[in-house]
């Protein structure tokens, strides 16, 4: 690309992406190819920085004739002639598939967090000594806790009315890797007794060594 923002040379991949032959791109300006809005909004400022002698990296999405809306990573490198930047070499990488996967993952994470926050089921995570590392809002509500920092490193045993039953459940969990028990007498931080259902499973590393205990608590005292 020369200093008049005109293409002087393009490769075959660029032509395929534009659904044009080289003669329909070379000699035409970036505004001709990408449209004035894209040129002004996404491209011109980056080109001008590159013509100042800087390597420029940015991401943007463009409408292409061949494939519609696509996401690109663009690297612009200054080309010097007699110590003056006369051209910009623009390398454009299509990252549409990566972007779409990132967007899908973000949407799934948002939906999961929304579900986790609104379900009346308490979720918790413990270390392998059954000390709490974190919990969701429902867990805090069930056990009358104000905020998550109150429970950090608190033994899960505290919420069992019967410590021997807790030991039995822990043994079964470590043996079977997943458990589910109903009608357990539990107690809140205020000392109130509730009836709950507890489910939990062991999270292991790649070598099979337990690293976390993840679980859920349902309060069905009213039922």
Write the topology of this structure.
Elements: H1 12-18, H2 30-34, H3 36-51, E1 56-64, E2 68-81, E3 84-94, H4 96-118, E4 121-126, E5 132-135, H5 137-142, H6 163-176, E6 178-187, E7 193-204, E8 210-219
Antiparallel strand pairs: 1-2, 2-3, 4-5, 4-8, 6-7, 7-8
Can I get a quick summary?
The protein is of the alpha+beta class and about 220 residues long.
What does this structure look like?
The protein is an alpha+beta fold. The protein is built from six helices and eight strands; from the N terminus they run H-H-H-E-E-E-H-E-E-H-H-E-E-E. The longest helix has 23 residues, at 96-118. The strands form two sheets. The protein has a five-stranded antiparallel beta sheet with strand order 5-4-8-7-6. A three-stranded antiparallel beta sheet has the order 1-2-3, with helices on both faces. It has helices at 12-18, 30-34, 36-51, 96-118, 137-142, 163-176, and strands at residues 56-64, 68-81, 84-94, 121-126, 132-135, 178-187, 193-204, 210-219.
Comma- or semicolon-separated keywords:
5-stranded antiparallel beta sheet; 6 helices; 3-stranded antiparallel beta sheet; 223 residues; 32% helix; alpha+beta
Strand segment count: 8
Q: What's the story with the biggest beta sheet?
A: 5 strands, antiparallel
**Rg of Cα set:** 30 Å
Helix content: 25-40%
Q: Ranges with pLDDT <50 over ≥5 residues?
A: none
